[in-house]
Recover the amino acids of this structure.
């Protein structure tokens, strides 16, 4: 595969999307091909049938390969699902020599210390995100590298998930004949695709309403502050319509998309939809008012759960206010009048997020639909990972070429700290290689 190409694979509860993208000369991302298939074997973001998931992945990948006219090798995969939770934790290290400035190694030591936290059986830390540092008691330091100090402390946002679920996803990707190039947390991927830097600075909550789960990511001062996965999504709304109107799932889904609204006051009492009965039975008549009452009840429940998480983060404190409000994305965000309902429940400004923040201007409207926010985010993540690899490679070449390198450079190559997700990806790969 070409160097500046990346493939995002979004393994969702309702659909699996494979998306191929590359960077153009303006630094924007062009989407070359996209494939999607119905997701069988995934429930609430967690794989529960390996064989079916592998088939769905292969189908989506083939479709993307045909539309882009190229072979796919490696992919960047998103992880979400109801097993993911997050916690706040603070930790410190005492440095042996406070005469030296704080460097990457000190920060790595501090982060590795957080990894020793005791988790529930089967859980592992996926992500450790430093929030802010303290050096010798001086608070609110964003970047401690280069400072002097004996005691280095930090507050961390720690994301925890079940190892077996992550390994299962890795297994599916490998069995589908693909290389696992990277693993990313889905709320982070969606956020990259949809949010602007200004919003992340001002404070914003991204709510990604998928089929099986609703993901939340909160940013403030450009740093991710809180993540949560709520085990409800668009599918429970469909399920409610199916039960409430006694119709089959396919019809319930169509009703929701075509006539559904989150605001019952919208519909008059006499607006009726007729649904063909099953084989030789009478058609059913459903009033739109009842339909939107069913939808409204469930959507309110989902939004209120998300709002509880936003309150847990502490959005009512002056220092933690989310000035940019809420951004809704994901397939579920396309429900009519959802924006108004969210504003009504939370009292926060709300907009629908389209993943066009980093896409080239001439992208298809289809691709910039909120449905594809996570897939676009995964492509961006894959491209970023490649840039990092390139940088490291150039550095190595540079050091090898120089016969008499300047000592400084040798001592301190410009290395970006490897994110824990890179390490996690490697561990999952090793596990899969050894498990065969």
């Amino acid at each position: 595969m070409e160097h500046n190409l990346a493939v995002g694979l979004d393994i969702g509860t309702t659909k699996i999307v494979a998306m191929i993208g590359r960077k153009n000369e303006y630094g924007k991302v062009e989407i070359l091909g996209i494939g999607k298939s119905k997701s069988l074997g995934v429930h609430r973001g967690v794989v529960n049938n390996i064989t079916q998931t592998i088939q769905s992945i292969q189908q989506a990948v083939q479709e993307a390969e045909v539309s882009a006219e190229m072979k796919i090798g490696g992919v960047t995969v998103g992880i979400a699902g109801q097993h993911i939770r997050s916690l706040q934790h603070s930790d410190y290290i005492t440095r042996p020599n406070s005469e030296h400035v704080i460097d990457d190694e000190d920060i790595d030591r501090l982060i590795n210390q957080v990894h020793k936290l005791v988790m529930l059986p089967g859980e592992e830390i996926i992500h450790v995100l430093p929030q802010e540092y303290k050096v010798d008691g001086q608070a609110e330091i964003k970047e401690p590298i280069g400072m002097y100090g004996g005691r280095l402390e930090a507050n961390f946002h720690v994301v925890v998930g079940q190892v077996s679920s992550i390994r299962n996803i890795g297994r599916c990707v490998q069995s589908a004949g693909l290389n696992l190039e990277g693993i990313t947390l889905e709320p982070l991927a969606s956020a990259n695709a949809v949010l602007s830097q200004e919003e992340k600075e001002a404070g914003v909550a991204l709510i990604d309403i998928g089929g099986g789960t609703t993901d939340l990511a909160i940013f403030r001062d450009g740093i991710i502050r809180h993540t949560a996965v709520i085990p409800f999504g668009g599918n429970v709304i469909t399920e409610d319509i199916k039960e409430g109107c006694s119709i089959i799932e396919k019809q319930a889904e169509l009703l929701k998309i075509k006539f559904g609204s989150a605001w019952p006051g919208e519909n008059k009492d006499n607006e009726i939809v007729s649904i063909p009965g099953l084989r030789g039975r009478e058609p059913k008549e459903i009033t739109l008012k009842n339909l939107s009452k069913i939808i409204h009840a469930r959507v309110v429940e989902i939004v209120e759960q998300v709002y509880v998480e936003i309150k847990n983060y502490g959005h009512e404190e002056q220092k933690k206010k989310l000035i940019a409000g809420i951004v809704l994305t994901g397939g579920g965000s396309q429900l009519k009048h959802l924006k108004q309902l969210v504003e009504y429940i939370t009292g926060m400004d709300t907009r629908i997020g389209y993943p066009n923040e980093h896409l080239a201007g001439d992208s298809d409207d289809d691709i910039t639909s909120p449905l594809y926010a996570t897939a676009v985010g995964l492509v961006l993540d894959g491209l970023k990972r490649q840039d990092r690899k390139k940088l490291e490679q150039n550095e190595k070449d540079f050091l090898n070429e120089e016969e008499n390198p300047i000592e400084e450079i040798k001592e301190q190559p410009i290395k970006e700290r490897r994110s824990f997700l890179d390490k996690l990806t490697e561990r999952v790969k090793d596990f899969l290689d050894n498990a065969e």
